[in-house]
Design a protein that fits this description.
Layout lengths: L3 E2 L4 E3 L2 E3 L6 E3 L1 E5 L12 E3 L2 E4 L3 H7 L4 E3 L2 E13 L2 E3 L2 E10 L3 E2 L1 E13 L8 E2 L6 E2 L3 H10 L4
Parallel strand pairs: 1-5, 4-6, 5-7, 6-8, 7-9, 8-10, 9-11, 10-12, 11-13, 13-14, 13-15
Antiparallel strand pairs: 2-3
Length: 156
């Protein structure tokens, strides 16, 4: 089912940008891009959305500071690498290329269609909640708790 595009709501130096703070955004297709000025969705909650990321990670992290994503497709059209993403994700499906750390939790997320160079899970407590990850691309903080799951992960 095609989702309605969420159009920018502001203009900065002649460029349309998103400046949305603490909003509930439901059932939309959102393009995150950085053309001259970085917009922001700071503190917003996305539900049942398609998020198309078309910018480098250092822009993505600014645009999604303290956001939460629920039942969303997170589709990185540009590789997301080199930092900590401080958004939380629940029941999300990831596509695209990733090499980064997640500061907040990923709950019941699926990376089966993503290309992962590495994932650092700084708040993730349970690898059972993630699909499509494999050794050695995931960093495990609580090894003792996750050892039974780690044993089942496909290894080269």
């Amino acid at each position: 089912m095609k989702k309605e595009k969420l159009l920018p709501n502001r203009e900065f130096q002649g460029q349309p940008v998103h400046q949305r703070y603490n909003e509930e955004i439901v059932n939309k297709e959102i393009e995150m891009d950085a053309k001259g000025f970085v917009g922001s969705f700071r503190g917003s909650h996305f539900k049942d959305c398609i998020i198309k990321i078309r910018c480098a990670f250092h822009y993505t992290v600014v645009m999604t500071h303290n956001c939460s994503f629920e039942n969303c497709l997170i589709w990185a059209h540009t590789k997301q690498s080199g930092g900590n993403w401080n958004a939380s994700f629940k029941n999300c499906f990831f596509k695209g290329k990733y090499a980064l750390r997640f500061e907040k939790s990923l709950s019941d997320c699926d990376f089966s269609n993503a290309k992962i160079d590495y994932l650092g899970l700084l708040a993730n407590n349970d690898l059972n909640e993630l699909k499509g990850i494999h050794y050695p691309v995931v960093a495990i903080l609580d090894v003792q708790k996750n050892f039974p799951v780690w044993e089942k992960i496909e290894k080269p």
